[in-house]
Amino acid sequence: MDICLEEIMGINIEKMKNELKRFTDKDHYEHTLRACEIIVELAETFGADKEKAYLAALMHDYARDFCMDEERVLKYCEEHGVILDDFCKKFIPGLSHGPVGADMVMRRFGVTDVEVLDAISRHSAGDRITLLDKILALADALDTGTMISEEARVAAKSDLDKALVLCGRHGSPSEGEYAAMLMEKRKTQPKKERDGTSIYFVRHAQSDPDTGTDRTRTLTWDGHIDTRKVASFFSAMEIDIIYSSPYQRCLNTLRNVALLQGLEIIQDERLRESKYGKLNGIFHEVIHNRWNDFSWCEEDGETLGDLQKRNIAAVSEILEVNKNKNIVIGTHGTALSVILNYFNPSLGHDNYLRIAGFMPYIVKLDFNGNDYVGHEELLIVER
Question: Are 127 and 149 in contact (CB under 8 A)?
Answer without folding.
Answer: no
